[in-house]
Amino acid sequence: MKIIDWYILKRFLVTFLFTLLILIPIAVAIDISEKIDNFLEHADLGFYQVVDEYYKNFIIYYANTFMPLALFIAVILFTSKLSNNTEIIAITNAKVSFTRFLYPYFLGATLITMVSLLMNHFVVPSSSKTRKKFEKEYINSRKQKNELKYINDFSLQLTDSTYIFIRSFNTQSNSGYDFTSEVYNGLKLKSKLVGDNIKFNTKDSVFTLQNWRKRQIYKDRDSIFSGNKLDTVFSFTPKDLIYKSALSQEMPSDELMKFIRISKKRGVKNLNAYLVEFHKRTSLPIASYILTIIAVALAFRKKRGGTGINLAIGVAIMFIYVFLMKISEVLGAVADVNSLLYVWMPNFFFGSLAIYLYYYAKK
Fold it and tell me: How far apart are CA 253 and CA 262, in angstroms?
């Protein structure tokens, strides 16, 4: 690397860190002003616990979320400063092409992308689990706490031949009613177990059925058994009933993919909300390269209005990118669509814009 490369890379990373360190305290200050009443409601909640269990993980989450925005703003600010100081003119007069000029920027974007990928796939999910547990206990309203309490009309494929259905289940008391388990031999029903009530015993991982009836189907006859109480085991737990798309944010990527594979085998119909979360963890960090090209191309030439006009255009572009990203996440979570395509759609659109600006800046 040449001296100019080290100069650009160092100033780029310093500006990026400076921008990130400005955004994080703002987010923390806004959050404190919103939640201070919730903290004061709990006399047993100490300052160290709030910092250790909540704000430490809050900073990890939002530092990762703000990385693309901080990178984009940092590139615009730093490159605009180079342009206004006519340093870029000196660089181009030295026969340095626009492509070669991007080299240190791409090195910086690569470092940020690698950190963001590591955080997205492993660090942030584990951190979010602690943060959301704290929110559930001290911040969220009773309605939010009970959001995952009741599960209605839930069906699950346990094996290739075994299916269960539960009309309603309370995850707090681990009990429910109107339970059905069906075992098939190909397309033919082999046996059917029905219980008016079902309860899971966490101590021995056994399900207890009340007022149960079992129908065993043979080739030439059927047998029906019944009783008041039946202790049995199934290859699922109440935890399998309460997985929601929000909980996918708390699973590291390896655990998330394992859950998706198991759910597919069990016949869960729509897993796109989980797939959106998984694909987003890669698409957003990769956007760092796209946003870097756009930011450099915008600020490469000196404009009337200087840094202000470049920053205004950049913020507008970033707002459109975030808006499209949120729309793509919602559309990608709909059943029977290609979630991968929808999650990457903002990158495809802005990638095309980056290519156009790149060739325009080269002229």
Answer: 14
Torsion, Cα of 275, 280, 283, 287 (10° steps): 160
Cα 340 from Cα 351, distance rounded (Å): 16
Strands 175-185 and 222-232, by their bridges, are unpaired
Spell out the SS3 assignment of 139-200.
HCCHHHHCCCCEEEEEEEECCCCEEEEEEEEECCCCEEEEEEEEEEECCEEEEEEEEEEEEE
Kindly report, residue by residue over 21-76, the tens digit of the pLDDT: 999 999 999 999 999 988 888 888 899 999 999 999 999 999 998 998 899 999 99
Give the pLDDT confidence score for residue 341 in this predicted structure: 93
Structure tokens at 217: 């189907």
pLDDT of residue 111: 94
Number of Cβ atoms within 10 Å of the Cβ of 215: 16
Q: Which contiguous run of DSSP H or E holds residue 25?
A: helix 3-40
346/317 Cα distance (integer angstroms): 12
Confidence (pLDDT) at 149: 67
Of residues 212, 211, 42, the one with CA closest to residue 134 = 42
Asked if 229 contacts 209 with a C-beta cutoff of 8 angstroms, the reply is: yes
Helix (H) or strand (E) holding 223: strand 222-232
Which residues are paired to 209 by β-bridges?
198, 230
Rounded to two decimals, what is the model's pTM? 0.75
Query: What does the domain layout of the chain look like in residue ranges?
Result: 3-142+271-362, 150-241
Of 327, 288, 315, the C-alpha closest to 120 is 288
Render pLDDT for 250-273 as a digit per residue (tens, 0 to 9): 889 998 898 888 777 766 666 888
| Segments in 199-271 forming alpha helices (H) | 253-265
Which residue shows structure tokens 């970033």? 318
Residue 332 CA to its chain's centroid (Å): 13
Q: How far is CA 252 from CA 55, 116, 128, 139, 155, in A?
A: 20, 14, 10, 24, 25
Query: For residues 341 and 124, what is the distance between their CA atoms, to the nearest angstrom?
Result: 24
